[in-house]
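ok so for the tutorial part 2 we go from a plain amino acid sequence to predicted structure tokens. step 1 is just haveing the sequence, like this:
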Amino acid sequence: MHAAQCAACTKSGPAKYGTTNNTHRVLTISICGRPCDSALFLQKGCCTNRVTIKTPVRILFIGDIFGRPGRTLVKEKLSSLAKDQAIDLVLANGENAAAGFGITPALAEELFEMGIDVLTTGNHVWDKREIVDYFESADGNAHSPARRLLRPANYPPGMPGRGVYEGRKRDVPYAVINLQGRVFMAANDDPFRAADHLIKSVKAKIIFVDFHAEATSEKIALGWHLDGRITALVGTHTHVPTADERILPNGTAYITDVGMTGPYDSVIGVKKELVVGKFLSNMPTRFEAATGDARLCAVVVDCDDQTGHAKTITRLMVA
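step 2 — the prediction. this is what the tokens look like for a chain of 319 residues:
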């Protein structure tokens, strides 16, 4: 709580948050300290003063949404979580939304309706073939839902979809970049050089990167490579949250893996008995999404919209 002096009577009093104007919050300063709207104070004859204090842009990123359990949890928790955390922008990885393997147009639209602004993906993006037509349905509309669903930017040229989205939220410009790793994954273009190229073309100061990769070393290396040039780099894909969240020296928020939003009574989202059986027999097995112990894993990043630098990064796990 800020303390300030009332311009009307020179008495000091606590400052309370009042109305919200874009990314700025107006503080109402009163000698009685009641968290009322300033207009109400004026009606009651209380002395007031209003000051505008700049507050960080708060970004919520939700880790890999896995199947129905993950989608259900997002539907149940996102609205209250965004309100409680005073979130300005909601991002999520949705590549496992369709029973753990890919995402359909209907599920993408469903997740957007829940309040997610941009969806990223990864190696499972082509698991549902209808997503190709969905990407192409954007048809030049730069802010349509189909345009706000991304696939990794370092895929070969000419592939359907895009790997970067630039938008505005509450009058603040931002960009989201989706990249995929190469270590222990399918061969694609170099994510390091792809990131260098994309960052040069982005106009927004706030640049958020989802790096969908297997190897911790590759994720950490890209974080260091981009430090100071992007707002945040968060890892996805392994479905296991890591405890290494930090702000790198030049102002980039980093975490190796946000974790999965889905069933934790499982092996990274799949029914555990099927995966254990696969390891024991080495025989082909049809994997199915698990259902138990659903948890929402996410991070909240506070950043400055003028510099794009992150101030804090906080891990969340919500059951």
